Amino acid sequence: MITHTGGCHCGRVRFEVVAPAHLEVSDCNCSICSKTGYLHLIVPAARFRLLRGAEALTTYTFNTGTARHLFCSVCGIKSFYVPRSHPDGFSVNARCLDEGTVTGMTVAPFDGRDWERQLPEGRAQWLEASEQQEVS
Ligand SMILES: [Zn+2]
Questions:
Q1: Which residues does residue 81 pair with via DSSP β-bridges, in sequence order?
Q2: From the CA of 96, how far away is ligand 1's center (Å)?
Q3: Radius of gyration over alpha carbons of the chain, in Å?
Q4: What is the reported pLDDT for 132?
């Protein structure tokens, strides 16, 4: 586990996230992710820290309202947000990480268009025991 940094395009929003150097990310085909090309790095809340820019963030919600899509109000980039699948954690856009710390990415497709069939309980569970400890 290492600390990656990233942020929006204009630099107002900056964060750090603890994750492996080789990232496991998901490429979701839902109505909003497919339009933005968002690559999800989903982490427990304890592994994400907003360094600056909270005042620049604006929130967009739709459908169930569970996901809180957070955009920089100046440059429009969604560099991270609170995902419907893990409302107690964060999804970081792997495309918004700074260069230099990511050694590679494994991209897995996620069929967010058919949400109810993918996640009949409405959300996903944390897979790794270590992650469960960190969020408990
Ligand atoms: Zn910005």
A1: 91
A2: 11
A3: 14
A4: 45
